[in-house]
Amino acid sequence: MAPSVRQVLWSLVTVFVVGTVVTKIRMFFRHPAAPGPKLALVTRLWYALQVWGAISRTGTSKPIADMIVRVAPSLYSIDDPEAIKVIYGVKSPMAKSSWYSAFGVPGIPNQNLFCTRDQSKHTIMRRKVAHLYSMTSIKAYKSHVDDCIQLILDKFDRFAETGHTFSLDHWLQCYAFDVIGKITFGKTIGFLESGGKDISGIMKSLDSLTSFCSVVGVNIALLPLCLLVFGDPSKGPMAFTKEITGKREDDNLGDGSSISTDASYGDVKTFVQKLEKLRAEMSPQEFEDCRIEYNALTNVVAGSDTTGLTLTAVLLNICTHPTVHEKFRQEIKIYHERRNNEIVVQDKRVEARPTITFDQAQSMPYFQLVLKETMRLHPATGLPLWRDLPQGGAMIAGTFFPGGTSIGINSWVIHRNTSVFGNDASLFRPERWDPSLISNEDLARMDGCYIPFGAGARTCIGKNVSLLEINKLIPELVARYEFDLISPPDLVWQGQKPEPKKTNNFFVKRKDIMVKIRRAQVA
What we know:
By secondary structure, the chain is α+β, with helices and mostly antiparallel strands. The chain has a single domain (about 45-520), classed as CATH 1.10.630.10. It contains 19 helices and 17 strands. It has helices at about 5-30, 45-50, 85-90, 120-130, 135-140, 140-160, 170-185, 200-215, 225-230, 235-250, 270-280, 290-320, 320-340, 360, 365-375, 410-415, 420, 440-450, 465-480; strands spanning about 55, 70, 75-80, 95, 165, 345, 350, 385-390, 395, 400, 405-410, 480-485, 490-495, 495-500, 500-505, 510, 515-520. The chain has a five-stranded mixed sheet. α6 (about 140-160) runs parallel beside α19 (about 465-480), α11 (about 270-280) packs antiparallel against α12 (about 290-320) and α12 (about 290-320) runs parallel beside α19. The chain is globular, with a radius of gyration of 25 Å. Its cofactor is heme. Keywords: Heme, Iron, Metal-binding, Monooxygenase, Oxidoreductase.
């Protein structure tokens, strides 16, 4: 007699349950013992639930005592300085884990550098566009950045006049968004000019996209089901990018050559125009048409949130540490005096003043210490950068891990490693990087553990864009305004200094930082 449908179903369920149990038991005995939540022994659910929420829930708000922490089956967070080169070094055989696949557009493999897991394909893709992100290439966009600086200064001047309370983190993200828009598409997206409106809801869409990908990537097998249930969160940002790219292409000449949206920029081409030139020089197999949109979207996703949140962190650290604030102010003052830059003052308003160039900002030694210490304590990303061990496994942090295990280092953890940064590793102290106060050996050791932009061959390709935006804006804001922090309702108090709560969906953000500003007294 043939088995009934019910018998077949029960047999399948039994096989599934038994198979799952056997797999978990094998994993338990094959993988090293390590501290971590009990639930993380048998399921990735615990880690998935931690990924989306307050940063304190993901264990990154303070250093952990153990070098190895299990956050899920076959998923280990490592806090060992010696492991950085082993995991992320240029010659490391460890590929990106399946977590990154969630950040791609469904059905299209290897469409951007971030989600491409195959190292050889990543190398080829990066080689094609690396020169577009070189510091020499990025410096050519200084006028684009200056335009956006003038826009945000105009808004902040108005806030200073009226005493208006505003969200500092939101406006700094607006600035970052408009800069990356101008560099990529040749025009600002319009956040600053619109008074801080979320144009086409793109900020909210990108935040939702990042949260979705970070959570679903924990168990990539669930991606098809999640897309079916929740829809594809990349559609909104992708449509936005196509719309902006299309509008820019409408400005092209009939023969296909491009014109700049502003003649004052001369021969400076937008990022999209440079990508179009690459496409024209390569075969369709080497550079597909869709790569233009995917690279443009990657610029927007990676270049707005990360720069905006870093700007917020830098400014908060300066303004909540009076000694740091005063030393930086004096450095700016000395810089202006040395270069004979005149500040014209009339009715307590600055009518004209040269903006500080990127090279000049980088020549301010104390400012660079402040910036580096901020990115140590508040790197943009707050989750481990997962890598898969190859067949045969590897020794990491003195422990053997079998092949197929995923391991990663969280910059929020390694940057607070007391064996490297000292017992005060959790404190903001720019002087720790001062080469005149520490030995070359200690400085090299700290630099070796400093990974705010990642490490090895997968270092963030757009870091020069972010550094340009930050170095040009921060000195202007600190020289021009006094910032009064208005306590939002969700502050965590540390002594007398308010510390806003952070959210972590891969990007670690301080949100709703409400401030009032006043024009600084010009000496």
